[in-house]
Amino acid sequence: MDKLLAGNNVAVTEDGYLEDFNQWSKEIASEIAAEYGITLGEDHWKVILYIQEQYEKGVPLSIRSIGKSGVVSIKEFYQLFPDGPLKRASKIAGIPKPVSCI
């Protein structure tokens, strides 16, 4: 299905994840984040870029792997992306829902 984000029609799954990473932009990320009441700051972008890099390498993501990455601690990850940090951060980063997310 299509969703209007940052003035663009983008294809999203039933859960709201982008179907095509190539449609992702910082503006789209900011708009998705705003839906959750999140204003993206420098630390958010560090996490988002890390998640995208891991996705492109085919590395499975988990909350634990984010915490061990050195980018942020698990506590900071939860503070940056409350109520399901990996789901929200992945959605904002424009990647498919991680397998480790229920």
UniProtKB/TrEMBL annotation:
Gene3D superfamilies: 3.30.1420.10, DsrC-like protein, C-terminal domain. It is found in: Cytoplasm. Pfam families: DsrC (PF04358). The active site is at 101 (cysteine persulfide intermediate). GO terms for biological process: tRNA wobble position uridine thiolation. It comes from the Bacteria. This is Sulfur relay protein DsrC. It comes from Flavilitoribacter nigricans (strain ATCC 23147 / DSM 23189 / NBRC 102662 / NCIMB 1420 / SS-2) (Lewinella nigricans).
